[in-house]
Amino acid sequence: MTSQRERQPVISMKGREIVQVGIVVADAAKTARRYASLFGIGPWLFVDIAPRDMILRGKSLRDGESCVRVALAQFGNLEIELLQPLYGPSTHMTFFEQQGEGIHHFSFGPLDDHDRIVSALRAEGIGIEMQGLMNGAGTFSYMATQRELGTIIEAVRPAPPGEPLTLAPWGHYVPPGPGFVDTQGKKIAQIGIVVEDVDAAAKHYWELLGIGPWTLIDFKPPHVSGTVFHGIPVIHPDFCVKAALTDHGNVQIELLQPVSGPGTHMEFLQRRGQGIHHLSFGLVDDHDDCVARLASQGIEIEMTGMLGGFAVFTYMASQEQLGTIYEFVKNVPGTPTALAPRGVYPQ
Questions:
Q1: d(CA 13, CA 211)
Q2: Which stretches in the chain have pLDDT values below 50?
Q3: DSSP 8-state secondary structure symbol assigned to residue 213
Q4: How far does Cα 279 stand from its chain's mean position?
Q5: Which H or E run includes 193?
Q6: What is the DSSP string of 153-169?
């Protein structure tokens, strides 16, 4: 029997960047306009998609039985896809009914070996959450990796050469001016995913997708201090979040297991279960200005604190306006980090 250390990944996603995050929202048009006004993101393209040959968790649906409104815009290194379920059964409708707005998946985009990847994951017991054909735009496959990876992942089979694109956008929205927050030169540096077991999740990412290696670290006092949650200073002495981090192409993936104490990660896990908790801009020079400008637009601080004595992290409660939490980080000049990894995976 192959040992844990010797086992090779089922498939290798090395060199294949995450190109998109899909956010389920109640109103795609309203949310897109809010992204434009706050961050200056756009132009946005709008299209209503009723896939053909759709399969939802093993059940075939009639053509046109389900429809989702999609708004697309590039945000630095990632495409933001807003998904408003309009009618009929779909993974987006289920997500919205059970969890409300939030990040539904991240996508590797079009892959020439889509079929091989889907087959290899299915052989490992990973089902297809939803699959369908979009005329001229290929076949999308959402893989049911929520339990293993903390979220759904998507791969797309490119359309055959010469197939006409029939998914014509019905709308186009250009931001009327710069956003309240200056995003020039900024990018999404990190995708943060709340999981029930960080070690198991890191192992699954490596064994299924070859994503890693992972740095394992515990965020707890005294290396986390001055934490304020919903405006209330946190005095819980046993606050702890276990984390695993890896750089994958254009973004860092951060897995977060809340262990004890109140905080945004524990609240997320208790209310929603595993899932993508936030998108982070990472280190930014104008952290304080970004926080103040969002606050002026009614977006309060969800949680903030000092990490390792060298950095301040700030999660903004932007879920209602932007569909997810956004994070900003700033350095404390001249202060070395007090954080020390507890290990790496794989060894």
A1: 7
A2: 1-4
A3: -
A4: 6
A5: strand 190-194
A6: EEEEEPPPTTPPP----
Report the alpha-carbon distance of residue 297 to residue 294 in Å, rounded. Answer: 5
Q: What is the pTM of this model?
A: 0.95
Q: What is the pLDDT of residues 173-228, one digit of tens each?
A: 999 999 999 999 999 999 999 999 999 999 999 999 999 999 999 999 888 999 99
Beta bridge pairs of residue 253: 191, 246
Domains and CATH numbers, the chain: 20-173 (3.10.180.10), 190-345 (3.10.180.10)
Measured in residues, the chain has a length of 347
How far apart CA 207 and CA 160 sit, in angstroms, is 31
Q: 91 — phi, psi (to 5°)?
A: -65, -30
Residue 149 identity: L
Give 156-164 contacts, CB < 8 A, sequence gap 24+. 156/107, 156/108, 156/109, 156/110, 156/111, 156/114, 157/110, 157/111, 157/114, 157/115, 158/110, 158/111, 158/112, 158/114, 163/135, 163/136, 164/135, 164/136
